[in-house]
Amino acid sequence: MPLSPDQQAEVDALRDTPQSTLRATVPGIEQHLYKPHDVLDHGFVRVIDYMGDDSAICQAARVSYGKGTKSVQNDEGLIRYLMRHWHSTPFEMCEIKLHVKLPVFVARQWIRHRTANVNEYSARYSILDREFYIPAPDHLNAQSVVNNQGRGALLEGEEAARVLDILKADSNRAYDHYEQMISDDGQSGLARELARMNLPANIYTQWYWKVDLHNLFHFLRLRADAHAQYEIRVYADAIAKVVADWVPAAYGAFEDYRMGGAQLSAKGLDCVRRMLKGEQVTQETSGMSKGEWREFEGVIG
């Protein structure tokens, strides 16, 4: 299950004892505090703490005191300007701390975003639970024939069933051996820091992940993208919903300029200008490689 009884009791206790504060708070994200948002089969994301709001971004940009301008529209306009012109430091004034439960192989992708503070559950000291990520049948795909790091057609029938049987059997067999190695029943038992090497990459781990909004937006731009691996994308999608409630103006600008927008190279911009003048531009006359042209066509439709 996503939360252990002890963790659920902690959540209940924290939500039952609200504290008064003079710092800026956001009702939208307050509703998310401590609550787990289920992801995959055993994972979750939950907000542990946060700092700042849309006004904090504007305050930092103006280096002023208080809430900045009196007009919400003016603040939103400033935030859109900052996003549009790639001004990053004002967004760094907001931070969020998340508790995430995720498969180890997803964590290894996630940790490449090195601009965060991370503290992971230690299998040197503690025993990992028997919880593994097993894909749903509609997420079992063959290797893509056009993308070395992507998925292709869905596996079906006997092949899909065989793959699921292998994943379940191997995961449980590895965990059985893990328990046998660390057991001190009639033996000394192997050290936990060594026994963990035999565990599969689909076992679940947990960590606290603290990041500022600028670097969180970078994470979401890459991991909430349709081309990102499904197993990390669903975590990014869950986080994005929280961020939209936390800093709605900043998230709106991010959606518009980063997620919904596109960046063109100098060659791409030149091709657009030529097309607007009525010229028939092809890959051969564009100066782009086949891969660049294919991506360019995807942008301009």
Automatic annotation (TrEMBL):
Q: Which domain of life is it from?
A: Bacteria
Cofactor(s) of this protein: FAD
Q: Which residues bind dUMP?
A: 109-112, 120-124, 196, 223
Coiled-coil positions: none
In its UniProt record, which GO terms are filed under biological process? dTMP biosynthetic process; dTTP biosynthetic process; methylation
Q: Does the keyword Transferase apply?
A: yes
This protein's pathway: Pyrimidine metabolism; dTTP biosynthesis
The UniProt note on the cofactor reads as follows:
Binds 4 FAD per tetramer. Each FAD binding site is formed by three monomers.
Active-site feature positions: 223 (involved in ionization of n3 of dump, leading to its activation)
Give the reactions, separated by semicolons, that this protein catalyses.
Answer: dUMP + (6R)-5,10-methylene-5,6,7,8-tetrahydrofolate + NADPH + H(+) = dTMP + (6S)-5,6,7,8-tetrahydrofolate + NADP(+)
Any GO molecular function? flavin adenine dinucleotide binding
Q: Which CDD domains match?
A: ThyX (cd20175)
Subunit architecture: Homotetramer.
What is known about what this protein does? Catalyzes the reductive methylation of 2'-deoxyuridine-5'-monophosphate (dUMP) to 2'-deoxythymidine-5'-monophosphate (dTMP) while utilizing 5,10-methylenetetrahydrofolate (mTHF) as the methyl donor, and NADPH and FADH(2) as the reductant.
What family name appears in the similarity comment?
Belongs to the thymidylate synthase ThyX family.
Q: What is the name attached to this protein's record?
A: Flavin-dependent thymidylate synthase
Query: Per UniProt, what is the name of the gene that codes for the protein in this document?
Result: thyX
